[in-house]
Amino acid sequence: MARTAGKGEWARHWRYDRLPGLDLLRARYVRHTFPRHSHDGFVIGAVTRGVEAVGLADGTLHAGPGSVVLLNPEVAHTARAGGPDGWAYATLYPSADVVAEIAAETGTVRGTAVFGEPIVTDPGASQMINEVHRAAEQGNALAADSLLRVVLARLLRAHGASLAARPRRSAGSTAASRAREVLEERLADPPSLEALAAELGTSPFALLRAFRDAYGMPPHTWLTNARVRVARRLLEAGTAPADAAVALGFTDQPHLNRHFTRIVGVPPGAYQRERKNVQEQDSSLLVPCEAWQTRQHPQTYVGQRPPLPTGSAQVLQASRTPPSSVTRSGSESP
Question: What kind and span of H or E run contains 11?
């Protein structure tokens, strides 16, 4: 991959159409920080340079070359550089269905497969993750698919676990779940915390605590994450970024651009272009971060919001797995 000028940051977030159920990100970040967010599928990242600091509910872990970050669906986390030189990594985002299929086929995990550790040291797996990227970039579907299955089976065999049975719901967790449902249905026009709590028959602080305990982040942070998830689906379907911004309740397109770039790692336009031509090899698709921040969008989009796509709330439904307990440095509250 060609280096870009400025901060030396670049990223490519794309999908290889012959590997369904998988997104790929290869990037180098120095100043970019990912705010607290979660994914509806798995995160499997191989750090190739520098150090990545991953913030989880009970502390911060540091991943360097040879390590693999393993995050289960719906685990709230942050990410930033763990040193002055930033970090570079190759990440796979397989869907829960892809991981479940491989776990069932290989018999490595009984029940619903998850990973028991958020960061492991496995240089061999790290190398294979990079080889999946390389094969996909070369258009070698046979190699990419084979390597993907081999590395996922290896990681499940060494670090896989079965999802524990859910504990009985408390009144607080029930209120949090109901609040989540309300926010899913009103993504573009959510109620205030006070109004939401009154609607659910609880107090604002009680709801705030229950929601953070259940989902690893407060309702307003979860809402931004949910909006960005649906924005991804809209962009993949061909919706213009400006229209997606209006449909989802963002103030304007720059508002969407800012949150989308922080959470996904690339701006909406670059994300959409990659999905229009997944075989594109042009290094100009590695977008300098300074371009993300300085590009001007003078228009403000007002008026009636276009409707959300059918089933937009359903795309936010996914299994929710609490982060694993490991030794961490410091503490980081959600």
Answer: strand 10-14
Structure tokens at 307: 């409707």
Q: What is the pLDDT of residues 210-268, one digit of tens each?
A: 999 999 999 999 999 999 999 999 999 999 999 999 999 999 999 999 999 999 999 99
Query: In whole angstroms, what is the distance from residue 76 CA to residue 239 CA?
Result: 28
Are the C-beta atoms of 74 and 321 separated by less than 8 Å? yes
The residues, ordered by sequence, that sit 6+ positions from 108 with a Cβ below 8 Å of its Cβ are 102, 153, 156, 157, 160
DSSP classification of residue 196: H
* 66-123 per-position pLDDT tens digit: 999 999 999 999 999 999 999 999 999 999 999 999 999 998 888 899 999 999 999 9
Among residues 116, 77, 74, the alpha carbon closest in space to that of 334 is found at 77
Query: Torsions phi, psi of 198, nearest 5?
Result: -65, -40
Nearest alpha carbon to residue 37 among 263, 219, 319, 230: 263
Tokens of 285: 């698709």
Strands 113-115 and 10-14, by their bridges, are: unpaired
Per-position DSSP letters for 91-105, written without gaps between them? EEEE-HHHHHHHHHH
Contact 42, 99 (CB under 8 A): yes
Rg (CA), the chain: 20
Torsion sign (Cα): 78, 83, 86, 87? negative
Q: What is the pTM of this model?
A: 0.82
Kind plus residue range of the DSSP H or E element containing 131: helix 123-137
Q: Measured between alpha carbons, how far is 193 from 182 in angstroms, rounded to an integer? A: 12
CA nearest to 27, candidates 229, 259, 266: 266
Residue 227 buriedness (CB in 10 A; 0-12 / 13-18 / 19+):
buried
d(CA 166, CA 156): 21
Please enumerate in sequence order all residues whose Cβ is within 8 A of that of 20, keeping only pairs 6 or more positions apart, or say none: none
User: Distance of CA 152 to CAs 37, 44, 99, 111, 325, Å?
Assistant: 23, 9, 7, 16, 22
